[in-house]
TrEMBL record:
One of its GO terms (molecular function) is undecaprenyldiphospho-muramoylpentapeptide beta-N-acetylglucosaminyltransferase activity. Keywords: Cell cycle, Cell division, Cell membrane, Cell shape, Cell wall biogenesis/degradation, Glycosyltransferase, Membrane, Peptidoglycan synthesis, Transferase. Residues 7-143 form the Glycosyltransferase family 28 N-terminal domain. The lineage of its organism: Bacteria, Bacillati, Bacillota, Clostridia, Lachnospirales. HAMAP family: MurG. One of its GO terms (cellular component) is plasma membrane. Pathway: Cell wall biogenesis; peptidoglycan biosynthesis. UDP-N-acetyl-alpha-D-glucosamine binds at T14, A15, G16, R167, S198, Q293. Cell wall formation. Catalyzes the transfer of a GlcNAc subunit on undecaprenyl-pyrophosphoryl-MurNAc-pentapeptide (lipid intermediate I) to form undecaprenyl-pyrophosphoryl-MurNAc-(pentapeptide)GlcNAc (lipid intermediate II). This is UDP-N-acetylglucosamine--N-acetylmuramyl-(pentapeptide) pyrophosphoryl-undecaprenol N-acetylglucosamine transferase. Residues 191-340 form the Glycosyl transferase family 28 C-terminal domain. It catalyses: di-trans,octa-cis-undecaprenyl diphospho-N-acetyl-alpha-D-muramoyl-L-alanyl-D-glutamyl-meso-2,6-diaminopimeloyl-D-alanyl-D-alanine + UDP-N-acetyl-alpha-D-glucosamine = di-trans,octa-cis-undecaprenyl diphospho-[N-acetyl-alpha-D-glucosaminyl-(1->4)]-N-acetyl-alpha-D-muramoyl-L-alanyl-D-glutamyl-meso-2,6-diaminopimeloyl-D-alanyl-D-alanine + UDP + H(+). The gene is murG. The keyword Phosphoprotein does not apply.
Length: 358
């Protein structure tokens, strides 16, 4: 058994800032690391990490906004408080290294690591670094990223192209199990999986439900629509299985799916690439975000991994045309993705962690 080493992991706010950390955990434990997680008091990361039986410590966390909000006056004090708490926790735990997946809760932790002379590695999922990581980069020894295009936005001496850690269990789904879980009668139709991100997508939900009869002629449909977004009127429709969220079941759903419709969050699309799932991406519009999903989607379309519909161009017809076209060309997409040389992200990041550990 390897000598016990200590790592503090951090990241939160959305599932995208947590799932890659969870994907790394088994390999870290096998390498002899004792893991402690620092997140916000009540963020979604708390439940996800505690489910992994990993010690979790909550700290004060504020959001850093680029727009006017009255909370901009109080949140810096929350961040400062979190910074003080993180210093105290790190001094007590004395970890060999800190690994951050981003989100605003990670900023005080990474800066506290620098203050305590503990090496920190951060991972940036999107093509351009978000505000939280832009600040945290100053305290980091190395910065991992998913896309070749990201390298030019990062300090050359810190940037490492690693790809995104993918949970091992995603590669071992049971399609038969999902068929029964979703209540589909047989394998007579291909399966379309719709994923709107961790909180669901109203735009995608409405677009899919408007053309449901046409889609059901050709496909069975698994629709992950987000919390509070189930449509009671559609309960009992044969071939249509709607769920607010899938956790353990998602692995089996991926195994069953022949085609996916998804937002273009970096972790989601990296999972689709790793699993070689033909996909249609509908990135979050620039009006509702900083435009990172649009850049992610363009990169994947350019590499031949995805078909992209801009949210502003999403209509009944563009959606149906895309589904029919991608399904008809599915072998081409599968071949391109399988030739992509998807990196061994977990192995690469683990070597990086080992190299900077004190």
């Amino acid at each position: 058994m390897a000598k016990s080493k200590k790592i503090v992991m951090t990241g939160g706010g959305t599932a995208g800032h947590v799932t890659p950390n969870i994907a790394l955990m088994p390999a870290l434990q096998e390498a002899g690391y004792e893991i402690t997680y620092i997140g916000s008091y009540n963020g979604m990361e708390k439940e996800l990490i505690e489910a992994q039986k990993i010690p979790y410590i909550g700290i004060s966390s504020g959001k850093l906004r680029r727009y006017f909000d009255w909370k901009n006056f109080s949140d810096p004090f929350k961040v400062l408080k979190g910074y003080g708490q993180a210093i105290s926790i790190l001094r007590k735990l004395k970890p060999d290294v800190v690994f951050s997946k981003g989100g605003f809760v990670s900023v005080p932790v990474v800066l506290a690591a620098k203050h305590c002379h503990i090496p920190a590695i951060i991972h940036e999922s999107d093509i351009t670094p978000g505000l939280a990581n832009k600040i945290a980069i100053r305290g980091a020894k190395k910065v991992c990223c998913n896309f070749p295009e990201t390298m030019k936005y990062l300090p050359a001496e810190k940037a490492v192209l690693t790809g995104s850690p993918i949970r091992r269990e995603l590669f071992h789904g049971d399609a038969e199990k999902s068929l029964h879980y979703c209540g589909f009668p047989d394998h007579s139709k291909p399966v379309l999986l719709i994923v709107g991100g961790s909180s669901g997508s109203k735009v995608i939900n409405e677009a899919v439900r408007k053309v449901l009869p046409e889609l059901l002629e050709q496909f069975y449909i698994i629709h992950l629509c987000g919390k509070g977004n189930l449509d009671e009127k559609l309960k009992g429709v044969v071939g249509y299985a709607q769920f607010e969220y899938a956790s353990a079941e998602l692995t089996d759903m991926f195994a069953l799916a022949d085609l996916a419709i998804s937002r273009a969050g970096a972790n989601s699309i990296c999972e689709l690439l790793a699993l070689h799932k033909p996909n249609i991406l509908i990135p979050l519009s620039a009006a509702a975000s900083r435009g990172d999903q649009i850049l992610n989607a363009k990169s994947f379309a350019k590499q031949g991994f995805s078909y992209v519909i801009e949210e502003e161009k999403l209509t009944d017809q563009t959606l149906l045309d895309a589904v029919r076209e991608v399904y008809a060309d599915r072998e081409k997409y599968i071949h391109t993705m399988s030739e992509s040389g998807q990196m061994d992200s977990i192995g690469t990041i683990l070597k990086l962690i080992e190299s900077v550990s004190k």
